[in-house]
Amino acid sequence: MAEWTVFVVCAVAAVAAGAAVFRVDSMARATFALLASFVFTAVPVLLLDLAYLGVLIVLMMTMEMVVMAVFMIMFMMNPAGLMPMTMVHNTKGALAISIAVFCVLAAGALLVPWPRESAPPPADPTLQLGEAIMGDDMLVMMVAGLVLFATMVSGVVLATGRGRYDRYGDDLRGRPDDPIRGGVGR
Amino acid sequence: MIDADDAVHWWGLVLAPALLAAYAYAAAAGSAARTARASGAPAAAALAAPAREAAGLLLRRRRTVPGADTLLWRVGIASVPVAAVMAVLVVPVGGRAIADLSIGVVWFNAMEVLLWGGMWLAGWGANSVWGLVGGYRYLIQGLSHELPHMFALTTAAVGAGSLRVGDIAAAQQDVWFVLVMPAAFVVYLVSALAMSFWPPFDQPVGRDLSGGAAAEPSGPDRLVLLAGRHAMLAAAAAMAVPLFLGGGAGPLLPGWAWSLLKAAAVLALLVWAGGRVPAVRMDRFAEVGWVVLLPLVLLQALAVSVFVVAGWM
Contact B287/A182 with Cβ under 8 angstroms? Predict the structure, then answer.
C-alpha cells in the first residue's frame, strides 16, 4: 500500500513537472522543472529495487541539467537564456509529433506481453538488468556511446569561437596566444 | 531498496544533523580564530564570533531585488544544508550509519552534485550579476573537480569491491586505503574543499564579486547558505574517514570515538589548508583538474585495480 501511494504520488508529480516545462516562462524554471520530473521518475526505479540505477538517475540528471545551464550561456542566441521565453515552438507540428509519439508509447505499454507469474525478484536486479541490456548488445551500446561522445566533441569544436588556429596562428607553431594562461604553466 | 543489511537507524536522524552542526560550527570557529590571530586580535574571543554572526543574521530582515525568482532562489539556498545532511546519512560512525545503503558511495556523490544545481540557483535566482557570476564560477569549479572526485570515490570502492560505505571501512582492517591510494586521498581532499567552495576555492563567493553567490542572500537566507557550506565541508571530512582512514579502527578508544576524532582531524586539516594556500582561480584550476588531477587519479585507479586483480588487497 505504501509503495503504491509513493508510486502514484511520484508518477503524477513527474508528469506535472514535465508539463510545467512547457508552461513556465524562464529557461531556469524549465530546466529545473525537467530535473524535478527526472527525480520523481527515479523514485519508482528505486521502488523496483534498482537502487543503483535510481540514485544514478538523480546524479546524472542533476549534472546534466546544470551543464545545460552552462551551455545556455555559451551558445544560445538569447544570451544566458535568462529572458522570458517559451519552450513551445512550431505548435502544430509539435502537437502532431507528440500525439504520434504518445500513441506509439501507449500502444507499446498496452501491447507488450508483461510477465504474469509472481516469481520472487532476483537477488541483484541491477546486475540482471545490466546483463539483459548489455549482454547481447554490448557492441551496439559501445558504438552508440562512441558516436554520442564524438558528436559532443564535434559540436563543441564547431561552436567554439576560438579554435587552435586562433590560439597558435596559421602554422600552428609557437606559444598559444591566450588571454589567460592555463593552470599548468603552458 | 532497503534489505536486511540496509536497516535504517532512526535515532541517528536526530544525532547525525546535531553532530554535523557541531562540526560545521567548529570549522567556522576555527577559521574565525585563525583570521583573528592573523590580524593580531585575541583568537579565543573569535571562537564565539560565528554564533554572534548567526544570531545577527537571524534578526536581520531579508532584502530582495526586483525581478528575483524567489522560489528558485530559496530552493537553491535551502538545498545546500539539505544536501550536506542527506550526504552524511551513509557515513558510518564507529561502524553504524543511519542507512548503510548498498550504493552508499553513489548516494553520497549524488547528494553533493545536488549542490551544483543549488548553487547555480542561489546565484541566478537573486537576479543580480554578482550572484549569477558566482553561480557559474561554482559550476566551472565543479566541472574541473568532479571527474577526479568521482574516480577517487571509485578507487576506494574498487579497493573494497563494494559500493557500501560500511564494507569499504571494513576492508581496511589490515591497511588503511590512504596508504594504498594516496593520490586518490589527496584528490578527495582537494575536491572536498572545492565542493564546499572553501578557501582556496572560494571564488564563487569571492570578495572580487562582492560576495558572489552570497552577495544578495541576507538575513536567515544568508545564514542557511553559509551554514550549509560549513556543513558540506564537515560532511566531506567525515566521509574521508570510512573511505580512506580505516573508519572506526584504532587502539584503546571505541570505534565511534575514533571515527569522530579522525573526522575532526580531517576537518582541521582542511580548514588549516584553506587558510594557508593562496586562492586558486577557477579558470586556471580547470586545466589543473583535467590535465593533472584526472590522469593522476586514473593511474591510481588502474594501480588499485591491478592490486585487486593480483589478489594483493
Answer: yes
Q: Which of A32, A60, A184 is the best mutation test for B, with the most CBs of B within 10 A? A: A32
> What is the average pLDDT value for chain B, to the nearest integer?
91
Cell of A184: 599548468
Is residue A163 classed as helix, strand or coil in its secondary structure?
Answer: coil
DSSP string, B263-301: HHHHHHHHHHHHHHSPP--HHHHHHIIIIIIHHHHHHHH
Spatial separation of the C-alpha atoms in residues B172 and B12, rounded to whole Å: 24
Prior bond to A44 cis, omega within 30?
no
- Domain residues for A160? 137-174
CB atoms within 10 A of CB B270: 25
Tell me, yes or no, whether A84 lies in a domain. yes
Report the number of distinct structural domains present in chain A: 2
> What are the grid coordinates assigned to B127, written together?
537576479
Burial class of residue A54 (count of CB atoms within 10 Å of its CB; 0-12, 13-18, 19+): buried
**Rounded-to-10 torsion of CA B226, B228, B234, B236:** -120
CB-based contact (8 Å) between A53 and chain B? no
Residue pair B208/B200 in contact (Cβ under 8 Å)? The answer is no
For residue A161 the three cell numbers come to 569561437
State the angle between helix axes of B129-160 and B294-310 in degrees (0 to 180), rounded to the nearest 10. Answer: 20
| Cβ–Cβ contact A135 with B under 8 A | no
**Interface touch A49/B106, C-beta < 8 Å:** no
Distance CA B22, CA B15 (A): 11
Preferred mutation among B73, B120, B141, B285 to probe A, highest tally of A CBs within 10 A: B120
Confidence of residue B97 (pLDDT cuts 50, 70, 90): confident
Check whether residue A7 and residue A79 sit in a common domain: yes
- Across the A:B interface, residue pairs with CB atoms under 8 Å apart total 83
- C-beta neighbour count of A61 within 10 angstroms: 21
- pLDDT category of residue A83 using cuts at 50, 70 and 90: low
Q: Which of A9-18, A63-72, A74-83, B293-302 has the lowest mean pLDDT?
A: A74-83
Question: Could you say which residues from 100 to 119 on chain A have a Cβ atom under 8 Å away from some Cβ of chain B?
Answer: none
Q: Are residues A5 and A81 located together in one domain of the fold?
A: yes
Does position B6 have pLDDT exceeding 60, yes or no? no
C-alpha distance from A69 to closest chain B C-alpha (Å): 9
Residue B41 carries which side chain, given as an amino acid letter?
A
Which of A88, A108, A125 terminates a domain? The answer is: A88
Q: How far apart are the CA of B284 and the nearest CA of chain A, in angstroms?
A: 4
Q: Would you call B99 helix, strand, or coil by DSSP?
A: strand
